[in-house]
Structure formats: structure tokens, C-alpha cells
Amino acid sequence: MKLEIIFDKEFTAVLTELAWSIGDNIKQAMVNSIKPAMTEQAPPVQQPQAPVQQPIPNPVPDEMPEYITPATNQFITGQQSTTPPVQDPQPVPTAPPAQVPTTAPTYDVQKLAVAAMQLKDAGRIGEIQELIAKYGVATIMQLKPEQYDAFAQDLIAKGVKF
Fold first, then answer.
1. For residue 149, what is the enclosing H or E element?
2. Which of 73, 100, 120, 138 could pair covalently with 64 via S-S, beta carbons 3.0-4.6 A apart?
3. What are the sequence ranges of the domains in the chain?
4. Mean pLDDT in the chain?
5. What's the first-to-final CA gap in the chain, in angstroms?
6. How far apart (Å, rounded) are the C-alpha atoms in residues 64 and 74?
7. How far is residue 10's CA from residue 153's CA, in Å, rounded to a whole number?
8. Is 40 a residue whose pLDDT tops 70?
9. Which residue has the higher pLDDT, 52 or 127?
């Protein structure tokens, strides 16, 4: 059996027309399926609200403490003070307290190297080399942190100022 189909238009034109028709039908079906959902009322969306802060009252007292000067009181309250100004007592001279160091000075390798430069600048580089050798290292940078204080004391004994 032989089947023959004859189109009165070109085949591509027929296929194009058919595709447009199918596309229009699909589009219409989609719109129709969405319409009922669009007409239903969705519950309103609740937007979060920021809490409202009530202003905190900041009352200004009628009488200011005595350590506040009349000029400051006038500035704060906007009113002239009715009380006479309080005279500040005259300070009594006292001797300054003796300064006693509360902690031992701390040294680090940079401070030690800078201090040792005083001996170098004075032409006493041999003394620096002797000190470094005493601690069993080749350079100041190789000193252990527990050796810093003793090395500093040796430098001070040689007249170095920190």
C-alpha cells in the first residue's frame, strides 16, 4: 500500500504554520491554567516592623551638684544661677612622691643591639665581642630571651645607658 499526501503549500510553510498553531495553543493553555490562581486572593505578606523606641526623658535637675560651675549650669539649663559661686579651696603644696620602680626593665634583642652600639661607637668593639662570647653565641641576635637581662646588666656595668 502506498500513501501519498499532497500539500497545496510548500512543506516548510505548512510545518511553520503548524508549529505556530501548536505554540499558540500551548501558550493559551498556560494562560488559562494561571488565571484561576491569579484571581484567588493570596494572604497578605506581613512585613517585619522595626521596634519603635520611645524617647527616654532626660530631665535637667533644678539644682546642679556643687562641682558644676555656675557657667556650666547656665549653659545646661539656660538660666542664670541664683546661688553664689563656690570658691575652690587653695591647693596645699606637697612634696612629690618618691619614684620607686615597680617593675624591672624588660629588654629585647633590638634594645640590646642598639645599646651595644654605644660601645662600638666609642671604639670598644672588643668588649662587645668578649660579652657575646661569654654567652656562647656569635651575635647578639642569637641570645636567648632568658639571657637578655644578664647581658643588659653587663652592658650597664660597662657604662652603657638604656
1. helix 148-157
2. 73
3. 8-36, 109-157
4. 75
5. 117
6. 10
7. 109
8. no
9. 127
SS3 content of the chain, % helix, strand, coil (to 5): 45, 0, 55
Cα separation, 6 vs 33, in Å, equals 37
**Residue 28: C-alpha distances to residues 11, 14, 16, 38, 39 (Å):** 26, 21, 18, 15, 17
CA nearest to 63, candidates 81, 84, 51: 81
Beta carbons of 140 and 132 less than 8 angstroms apart: yes
Grid cell 546642679 — which residue? 64
Whole-prediction pTM: 0.38
Secondary structure of residue 156 in the 3-state scheme: helix
